[in-house]
Specification:
Elements lengths: L7 H7 L9 H22 L11
């Protein structure tokens, strides 16, 4: 996997008092990377070079 795309401290803030497993950020980052890759493909299919919210 490439570099982490999420901020660990922000995950803990967003979890609102829940404990966060040490490997959660890695798993979340992988999901985010997959979503970005899918958005890129959708933009390419629509002949755009800019990914937009609608590509999610």
């Amino acid at each position: 996997m490439s570099e982490i795309l999420v901020v660990r401290s922000k995950i803990k803030d967003a979890a609102k008092g829940m404990n966060v497993a040490s490997d959660f950020a890695d798993a979340l980052s992988k999901k985010v990377e997959e979503m970005i890759n899918q958005a890129v493909e959708r933009a390419k299919e629509n002949n755009r070079k800019t990914i937009q919210p609608k590509d999610l």
